[in-house]
Write a structure and sequence with these properties.
The complex is a heterotrimer of chains A (287), B (542) and C (319). Helices cover 75% and strands 0% of the residues of chain A. By secondary structure, chain A is mainly alpha-helical. Chain C is mainly alpha-helical and 319 residues long. The chains are: A mainly alpha (287), B alpha+beta (542), C mainly alpha (319). The A-B interface holds A 49-51, 53-54, 56, 70-71, 140, 142-144, 226-227, 230-232, 242, 244-249 and B 230-232, 235, 249, 251-252, 255, 301, 304-306, 372-373, 375, 378-379, 381-383, 385-386, 397-401, 404, 408.
């Protein structure tokens, strides 16, 4: 299932993905956002921390594209740098959750029996908690820092991945190529990671894309409640939350970060759904 | 089926439409009541247990203490006590002569037994009250007769008098209850001008006029505390007249001032904001360095831009409008050149030309921290960071959530410098903040030691005479200003907005009722709340 | 069926124990103390220690857990913040939260299902694509941000209070007007809370409809010459709606988590806001109990969903 097969599969997926205009639009925006995040220091017209109090709360103009905040900092530059924080929270958190999810799902699905029941009970327990409240509580108790937020979001959102990785494993482990590998005496770890996992990755990829969107929204929500990435670091959630106080004086402080979050989350969602459609053979022929 | 499906969204739209029609056509009625916006819900309507400001505000209307501060915050007037006598000596005695004929809201008479009961409850270790610290120096209390109450102190302790302003609890109601969990805490009975009616959690607390109040029935019929968790939301409610009174933030002032139906009041507050330096850190042990930092921080700019001018730069550890603030001590001026000179004297120079000062090969670098959730401290931090960087000091600024901040940094003394504020009581005895005995476990977390100041703090709390106390605290002010263990930033000016419909009712010499505009007192806008009134017949423009 | 029920109940119970232990572990990681939340220079540290002791905070962690369990079961669990019984505090707010969520759910179902059904009628038409895009927009919008903008707009447009359960100056209102006032205060937060759900559920309905109309029996019905309208809105719809019913059970988990932000924005006195305040105040008994209660509600919800699924789909039989 490696080598040639994979490349041709990717090409096939891309062929179907291309037909979905919304998804392509989302992907374009995403690439743009990544570009911006990567080159923020070059693009930003000002130092994001530089205060110029005499220019505070100025509306958008040619000098300051998105206006200035309550300390006269350039909102545009802060937003550019903010994209780095928001994106890294999204990606690292999802990376952690995918890692745990795959591990738990693979072990449960491959070994089955009591290992499976035990792990699935754990998944049930975790699923029962109101996720956002759990995240809020833990972040509040540990103290909000970018590191804690990533880890906590990751630790509380792996259950979905675990469930469907397990389901894939349950069906794949009965397949001929796995049975053959077992008969040949290949060790378990190799079977799990080399033989079964690559075949179970597609849906993981889709859900990871969607989860990044959720993680960005969660960080914004935490910031709103005062438990996000702590100021003066310019995350989008922070700029928005700081700006909320000045909603009557400076609409741009509230509107633009909100739009940025909306646009990014929307793109991730569109791309994720596009991927799902093009990876699912049953849905392919229909566009 | 299609029709059924369609009907749901239609129903939704119709409902929304009716609602919009309804809300766009509603007038605002005039009612003789005051709606106050409070950012948090109260916790205990019991003056012994309450710690938060929402509870304290309400308790102040429902309960009375024996005495209360006068309108200049410079002495006391009787409340439940008609008068009192202080007998000085090594073990001073205060005797309170109580007002006769005062009734609890349930009609039972008030007596000295209630005062003793309140004291006993505070001192009971099982009672979850922080107020116990106030009475540490009390030796004993006695009920001399139903209207005379006597306190004996172990040693002279002048701040002790003010602690008898605490609200007195009714013995007959609480005698057989567990004070921590009794239903009384949500359904209180006091002697105050307003009596408790209703408390809907997280929504409102309603009080009504006490017709049998000993100073006469208040003119307002009702006071409602509304809980609105956020300031910009309160502002919106103020505009829709869902709120009558609200503490305005500096940036809202200009907008509020333009609204015709609002009157804006301002008043220096009993608090100040500072940067505290951890004196255990070798970086800050040289007085010249601390003075240089203060010279380098442009406090006027901070007040002008962060507080929109609503603050007073202070020179020492007291709020600037009270009697113990020493007006002869002037704040160190903003002077980056002087700052640079002082730093050079202390050995800090930029020898390697990287823009950062250094001494013996080590760069001048430290971390400034504050708690999150306080917008003003956050903005101050950002500005201070910029100002000190211009001087060649490499400073990072971070915020932490309050409990983490206290436990991991402040109480652990694990910090370089912090932005914090003190809210003070009108009495100047800040022994717990400054005395060197309070370094280990008290609030002297910057580890400040000055033997002369220590001695004066001890003297100040033993002295009853106001003039002599003034001298002591003025000297303390000088000493601390010289040492600069804090950079004293500012004392904020509180602003409040009130709907214009309220007036003060007074009697002219002939006994006729006349209306006067409401005035700000040093003790606060609401000092004369029982005289507030909404006159009928005055039509308010929308 | 009885054996299945018994097994499920046993599982429920085990999960419950797991939940309470896990939430306890989380809580005890906290650095803050519920006592010293304010820096009052008049309070001596001795007294704070004494007060912590009164709350059993000096006891070992496992002992605290059993104390909490015991107090909860005997109804003697009191909040640190105001000394009231925890269950009473939750009890007085839970109806507000339920009401808000019920209305939001009604809005979700009454708008999302028609939306999904009509979208699926002509898949990939302009209107369907618009609906798709709208749904993604709905899924992506930060709720609190939208809420802020909406509150601002309504205040500017109508000058009528929007926060809280009801208006405050209600003198001179007739009873029907008071009802309208309540509905007004309910509609805004409920509608905004519903947006996410509408987006999700309408997508779900749409794909469920598309799935069904490809089935053989629908083709058969069509080829028999039944009018397309009837086939679509009667036969297909009925089958597509069955799995959607089961979603009712899954709505509960979002109840508290989803309410925290909206209840804070709209000053709505519900469980979500209580939970948030309890976290801020380190009110461990309240946080613990809310975590546990919501987990229990979720368990019950899942259970109901399973049962509903069995009712809705006769192919599933429990053993």
């Amino acid at each position: 299932m490696k080598g040639n097969g994979t490349t041709s599969q990717i090409r096939l997926v891309w062929k179907y993905f291309k037909r979905n205009r919304l998804a392509v639009g989302g992907l374009t925006i995403l690439i743009a956002i990544f570009f911006v995040a990567g080159t923020a220091p070059l693009l930003a017209p000002y130092d994001p921390g530089k205060t110029e109090v005499s220019l505070k709360l100025k509306p958008p103009s040619l000098k300051h594209f998105l206006g200035t905040d309550q300390l006269g900092r350039d909102v545009f530059s802060r937003m550019l740098y903010g994209s780095r924080i928001s994106l890294s929270v999204g990606f690292v958190a999802v990376g952690i959750s995918i890692f745990i999810g795959i591990l738990v799902g693979a072990i449960a699905g491959y070994y089955g029996r009591w290992v499976d029941s035990l792990l699935m009970r754990l998944v049930d327990v975790m699923f029962c908690f109101p996720t956002f409240f759990l995240i809020l509580t833990v972040v509040a108790l540990l103290g909000p820092s970018i590191f804690n937020i990533m880890v906590v979001i990751g630790l509380t959102s792996w259950m979905g991945t675990a469930r469907f990785v397990r389901a894939e494993f349950l069906s794949l482990r009965e397949r001929d190529f796995v049975q053959a590998a077992k008969a040949l005496g290949v060790n378990d770890r190799r079977i799990i990671f080399r033989h079964i996992l690559p075949n179970a990755l597609a849906p993981v990829f889709v859900s990871a894309t969607l989860d990044v969107a959720t993680a960005i929204l969660v960080e914004a929500g935490l910031s709103f409640l005062g438990f996000g990435v702590q100021p003066p670091a310019p995350s989008w959630g922070n700029i928005l939350t700081e700006g909320r106080t000045y909603i009557f004086d400076a609409w741009w402080l509230t509107v633009f970060p909100g739009l940025a979050i909306l646009l990014t989350v929307l793109s991730f969602n569109l791309v994720g759904e596009g991927l799902r459609d093009s990876l699912d053979p049953r849905l392919r022929g229909r566009r | 089926m299609k029709i059924v499906l369609l009907s749901f969204p239609l129903l939704f739209l119709i409902l929304l439409g009716i609602n919009l029609l309804f809300v766009s056509s509603r007038p605002t009625p005039m009612v003789n009541q005051l709606i106050i916006s409070s950012i948090g819900d109260a916790s205990y309507l019991n003056p012994v247990l309450a710690q938060d400001s929402a509870s304290s505000d309400i308790n102040g209307l429902v309960f009375n203490g024996l005495i209360k501060y006068n309108r200049d915050l410079q002495g006391f007037v009787g409340d439940l006590a008609e008068s009192w006598e202080i007998r000085p000596g090594p073990e001073p005695e205060i005797t309170f002569f109580l007002r006769r004929g005062v009734l609890w809201h349930d009609g039972k008479p008030f007596s000295a037994e209630d005062v003793k009961f309140t004291y006993d409850k505070i001192m009971d270790e099982k009672t979850q009250t922080v107020r116990r610290s106030d009475y540490e120096w009390v030796k004993k209390v006695e009920v001399v007769d139903p209207y005379t109450f006597r306190v004996t102190y172990k040693q002279p302790f002048s701040p002790g008098l003010g602690t008898w302003g605490i609200g007195i609890l009714p013995k007959h109601r609480l005698e057989k209850e567990d004070i921590n969990t009794t239903s009384f805490n949500r359904n209180p009975i006091g002697t105050g001008p307003f009596r408790f009616v209703e408390w809907v959690s997280d929504e409102k607390i309603v009080l009504e006029a006490n017709p049998r109040y000993f100073e006469g029935r208040p003119h307002l019929d009702r006071i409602i505390y509304r809980i609105i968790p956020e300031t910009s939301l309160s502002e919106m409610e103020l505009l829709t007249r869902g709120v009558d009174y609200y503490g305005v933030l500096p940036h809202q002032y200009r907008r509020m001032n333009e609204i015709p139906f609002l009157k804006i009041y301002s008043q220096p507050s009993l608090s100040y904001t500072y940067i505290g330096y951890n004196l255990k850190n070798p970086l800050f042990q040289d007085k010249r360095v601390r003075q240089a930092l203060t010279h380098a921080i442009h406090r006027e700019e901070i007040v002008q831009y962060v507080l929109y001018g609503f603050g007073q730069v202070i020179s020492g550890p007291f709020p600037s409008h009270l009697w113990y603030y020493n007006p002869n001590v002037k704040p160190l001026p903003y002077d980056p050149i002087k700052a640079k000179k002082l730093l050079t004297e202390a050995g800090w120079k930029d020898t390697d030309g990287d823009g950062v000062l250094d001494r013996e090969g080590k760069p001048f670098r430290f971390k400034l921290i504050t708690n999150s959730g306080n917008d003003i401290r956050r903005d101050v931090g950002v500005l201070v960071q910029r100002q000190l960087r211009e001087l060649g000091i490499n400073i990072t600024f971070e915020t932490y959530e309050w409990s983490v901040f206290l436990k991991n940094f402040i109480n652990a003394k694990h910090f370089d410098a912090c932005i914090l504020g003190w809210s003070l009581s009108p009495d100047p005895d800040d022994y717990m903040i400054w005395h060197s005995s309070q370094i280990e476990k008290g609030f002297n977390f910057i580890s400040y030691v000055n033997p002369e100041a220590d001695r004066l703090w001890e003297e100040g709390r033993k002295e009853y005479d106001l003039e002599r106390r003034r001298k002591i605290y003025w000297r303390i002010h000088e000493l601390i200003a010289e040492d600069q263990p804090y950079t004293f930033l500012f004392s904020p000016i509180g602003i409040s907005a009130l709907q214009k419909k309220f007036v003060l009712v007074e009697r002219d010499p002939s006994g006729r009722e006349i209306y006067r505009p409401i005035q700000m007192e040093k003790a606060g806008l609401m000092y004369d709340l029982i005289k507030w009134y909404v006159p009928r017949g005055i039509v308010m423009e929308k | 069926m009885t054996r299945f029920l018994f097994k499920r109940l046993l599982q429920l119970f085990m999960t419950l124990i797991g939940i309470s232990i896990l939430s306890w572990i989380i809580i005890t990681q906290a650095p803050g103390s519920p006592i010293a939340l304010t820096m009052d220079p008049k309070v001596s540290p001795k007294i704070i220690e004494q007060m912590e002791k009164n709350y059993d905070l000096d006891k070992p962690i496992y002992q605290q857990y059993f104390l909490w369990l015991k107090k909860l079961l005997t109804g003697k669990l009191y909040s640190f913040k105001d000394g009231r019984p925890v269950l009473e505090k939750i009890g007085e707010r839970i109806w507000n939260t339920l009401l808000l969520n019920l209305v939001a759910t009604l809005i979700i179902f009454s708008l999302a299902i028609p939306l999904g059904v009509f979208s699926a009628r002509r898949p990939y038409s302009f209107l369907d694509n618009l609906g798709t895009f709208g749904a993604y927009l709905g899924l992506s919008i930060p709720g609190f941000w939208l809420a802020y903008l909406v509150i601002l707009a309504t205040v500017k447009l109508f000058g009528y209070p929007v926060l809280g359960l009801r208006s405050f100056v209600i003198e001179g209102l007739s009873p029907p007007e008071i009802v309208l006032d309540r509905i007004w205060h309910l509609m805004l937060p409920a509608s905004i809370m519903a947006i996410h759900g509408i987006a999700g559920l309408s997508r779900y309905t749409r794909s469920s409809m598309l799935e069904v109309i490809r089935q053989d029996y629908i083709r058969t019905a069509k080829s028999k010459g039944l009018p397309e309208e009837i086939v679509y809105y009667k036969h297909a719809l009925r089958n597509a709606l069955l799995p959607i019913i089961t979603l009712f059970g899954f709505l509960i988990p979002g109840l508290i988590g989803g309410s925290i932000i909206m209840e804070s924005v709209f000053a709505w006195p519900g469980i979500g806001r209580l939970a948030y305040q309890a976290v801020l105040a380190r009110d461990y008994p309240v946080v613990m109990t809310i975590l546990t209660i919501s987990a229990v509600l979720t368990l019950i919800g899942n259970f109901i969903a399973d049962l509903l699924y069995g009712v809705a789909d006769p192919r599933i039989r429990y053993q």
